[in-house]
Amino acid sequence: MKWESELRLRQEITKAGRRLWQDGLVAHTDGNISVRLDGDWVLITPSGVNKGALKPYQILKVHLHNGEVDGNGKPSVETPLHLAIYRIRPDVNAVVHAHPPYATAFAAAGVALTEPVFPEMIVRFGEIPLVPYATPGTDRLAELVAEALQDHDAALLQNHGAITVGRTLEEACGLMEALEWTAKGLWLAKALGNAIQLTPSEIARLFAMRSNPVR
Ligand SMILES: [Zn+2]
Q1: Active-site residue 177, yes or no?
Q2: Residue 120: CB atoms within 10 Å
Q3: Which residues of the chain have pLDDT under 70?
Q4: CATH architecture of the region 2-208
């Protein structure tokens, strides 16, 4: 039944929130998570709630096209950003926004994660672009992120954090974890004085291994 799957998704979102908070990818009330429901509705985390202590009933329902809110409380300030992604990516069913420390440091330095150093990173992401700065919560940020995610599954948000999408919430969370490991690995390799880039032929081979080249 429909309400059963909605309840299951609400529980999945609370679990994902706990995971992001426990892994140190969000602090205090930062970050937001959403999942697409049937019939043009999206479940989204509320504004001002610690993701480690989120309860299923606190999650709100927002209409994908008219922004109508179902539930008590205020939906995440980044709701426009989540909705913009669902509108342009029918294959996406979950969106995660977090502030992972290493990835956010790259974002603050204005450096996209595009260096071809880690094979898994290329197979998983292709590359992770940097979205130019716009004020959090604005339609301008939503526009810029939707543009970047048209052909990517992850992006850094300049001076702010990171965003990942997935066919499932598990996938979107996994990509956020992988994005942070990429940033951390690159940071540490550079601290050792060198991050060896893969050769062009190896990069081409890895790109060919991608299961879905659009993503
Ligand atoms: Zn944020």
Answers
A1: no
A2: 12
A3: 1-3, 212-215
A4: 3-Layer(aba) Sandwich (3.40)
